[in-house]
Design a protein that fits this description.
Elements: H1 2-9, H2 15-32, E1 35-36, E2 43-44, H3 46-58, H4 64-77, E3 80-81, H5 84-92, E4 97-98, H6 100-114, H7 119-125, H8 130-139, E5 142-144, H9 145-158, H10 164-177, H11 184-191, E6 197-199, H12 200-209, H13 218-227, H14 229-239, E7 241-243, H15 245-257, H16 263-276, H17 283-290, E8 296-298, H18 299-310, H19 319-329, E9 338-340, H20 342-354, H21 360-373, H22 380-387, E10 393-395, H23 396-403, H24 473-495, H25 497-500, H26 509-520, H27 528-540, H28 544-556
């Protein structure tokens, strides 16, 4: 039987494996009732038909239909219902494939009923059939996904920087050129070991991809997997996804130790670190992971970040000790937190009022020098718009750099209400990484109608240096006007005669108001009065609020 067992073992399925599959099927059937046709896996029917021929030659008194009945009854005792007519069709070769449980059942019958339990005798009887069986395996159109999964693991080991999706795309293109029409989604589904069977062409094409590495067959791939099992499992572990929380903590600590606010710089270093290990990741993807926008990251990325952080930790210090020291002894751990710019603009205005001979640009230069002494990089072209109130948020070190310009202050700690996210610092959200739309703006008593000046004249015009904290009234009206005109276009289709009367554009505002009042009672749209007020504001240089109030007052009278 050794030769017979080699036929199945060499291609990912053995007699023992079929028996184990049959045992599992029996367990399932005992747990949840009889199962029809056994497992979903199918194997070539050549071996089954060869065993049937040998059995019928050894037991000529048993007819083909009787053998089919014996197999069906034996399967029933195993918890599998299989109709004898189906088995007869498989013996005749009408059906190309059979479940492994049916094959195992006939094998047991041959050993015990035809050869008295002598497996060697059955192996000798199968001697003339071996070449036929090997050829049948080579012609089988489908193979099990387990066989494909082993070769996929080996391909991923040799191509650490590529994903299964990239492999599926490559297989899709190459198989399409050879006439095999499989979608990339179905190929990727099989590469993830889903399903039971896969086209043989996928396995053969994947083996071709391994030829440059000295692997020319599935058997050689299997041997390589056994020899390098530890390294291959390590590569697969590096591809696994883990929680991104510890990774982001390491990123925040690295940024603080290196006084580096830019996530792009850290992403570039991580990309170089991963490239040395053969892993290629885009810098934009790394920036998203550092910024806290991905809930999970690759294990390889965590290892690379730990190695990068180890180079920045001073001798004798640990991550825990550094975290405790930064959080307790110095405001430096808040230097990279996001803060609102309104308090900064107010402080800059106060400093300029106390130093009337200094312009906003000179103040920006002073702040830049202070920031550079603190260990951070910036330019006056970046700082000046922040001091002038043109920006919504900035980093904490800019706030501290401005506070250091006030020698009479007891310290340079940032007020708690200046942080966009309370506490800032070493949190899991990336120092309070939020979009500009999420930044709260403090209400101010005076809203400037003109942009604040950034030049020397800023000191003589305090109101011009106020930060634009809220949208102006004109901006609100403009926004309301756009929304009103959009609703007007929709309502015009239903208004009919009442709306068309306003399209004539009367030359006099009073006449326009009279027409709007006249048709208000006939209008179908509840927004007619507001739309008429917006039209009056556009045509006659009057505010929409005043026009609306006039229309409503006249309609009431």
């Amino acid at each position: 039987m050794d030769g017979f067992r080699a036929v199945r073992t060499g291609y990912g399925g053995s007699i023992g494996a079929s028996t184990r599959s049959r045992d599992r099927s029996a367990d399932d059937s005992r747990a949840g009732g009889p199962r029809h046709h056994g497992s979903r896996t199918r194997v070539s029917g050549e071996l089954f038909r060869a065993l049937a021929r040998i059995f019928l030659e050894a037991r000529p008194e048993i007819a083909r239909d009787t053998l089919a009945g014996l197999i069906a009854r034996r399967l029933t005792t195993e918890g599998i219902e299989y109709h004898p007519r189906t088995i007869r069709r498989q013996i005749l070769g009408v059906v190309d494939t059979v479940p492994p449980e049916v094959e195992s059942c006939l094998l047991a019958l041959c050993v015990h009923e035809a050869f008295g339990g002598d497996r060697d005798a059955l192996d000798r009887a199968l001697g003339d059939q071996r070449k036929l069986l090997v050829d049948a395996e080579a012609r089988a159109p489908y193979v099990t996904v387990e066989r494909l999964g082993r070769v996929v693991e080996l391909w991923l080991y040799f191509n650490r920087g590529q994903s299964k999706r990239a492999l599926a795309e490559r297989l899709h293109q190459d198989l399409a050129r050879s006439g095999v029409g499989l979608t990339r989604e179905s190929i990727q589904w099989k590469l993830a070991s889903n399903g039971h069977l896969v086209r043989r062409e996928v396995l053969l094409q994947l083996v071709e991809y391994l030829r440059p590495h000295g692997i020319s067959s599935e058997e050689k791939a299997h041997d390589f997997l056994i020899r390098r099992h530890g390294d291959i499992q390590g590569t697969l572990e590096g591809r696994s996804l883990v929680d991104a929380g510890p990774f982001r903590r390491s990123c925040r600590l690295w940024q603080i130790l290196n006084r580096e606010a830019s996530t792009r710089r850290l992403a570039a270093l991580l990309r170089e670190q991963l490239a040395e290990d053969g892993v290629g990741v885009g810098i934009e993807h790394l920036q998203r992971a550092i910024g806290g926008k991905t809930p999970r990251v690759r294990h390889d990325l965590v290892v690379a970040m730990d190695a990068l952080l180890a180079l920045s930790i001073p001798e004798g210090e640990t991550i825990d000790s550094l975290m405790a020291k930064l959080e307790s002894s110095s405001p430096r751990h808040l230097d990279l937190a996001w803060v609102r710019c309104e308090p900064i603009a107010a402080l800059a205005q106060a400093w300029l009022e106390a130093n009337p001979g200094v312009s906003m640009r000179k103040l920006a230069l002073r702040v830049v020098k202070t920031i550079r002494r603190m260990g951070y990089r910036s330019s006056h072209n970046t700082i000046q718009p922040i001091l002038g109130g043109w920006k919504k948020r900035t980093r904490g070190y800019v706030f501290r750099g401005l506070l250091k310009q006030f020698p009479d202050r007891p310290d340079d700690r940032i007020p708690d209400d200046a942080f966009i996210v309370p506490g800032g610092g070493l949190d899991l959200d990336g120092f309070g990484e939020k979009s500009s739309a999420d930044i709260p703006t403090a209400p101010t008593a005076q809203t400037p109608q003109t942009p604040p000046a950034l030049g020397r004249g800023a000191a003589s015009s305090p109101s011009s240096r106020s930060a634009p904290s809220q949208p102006t009234k004109a901006a609100e009206l403009k926004k309301e006007k756009r929304a009103g005109e959009a609703k007007k276009n929709s309502a015009r289709r239903n208004q009919g005669r009442s709306q068309s009367a306003l399209d004539e554009h009367p030359a006099d505002l009073d006449e326009f108001i009279n027409k709007a009042t006249e048709h208000l009672s006939q209008a179908k749209s509840p927004l007619f009065a507001k739309l008429a007020a917006l039209r009056a504001a556009k045509l006659y240089d009057i505010s929409a609020e005043d026009a609306y109030a006039t229309i409503m007052s006249r309609s009431a009278s």
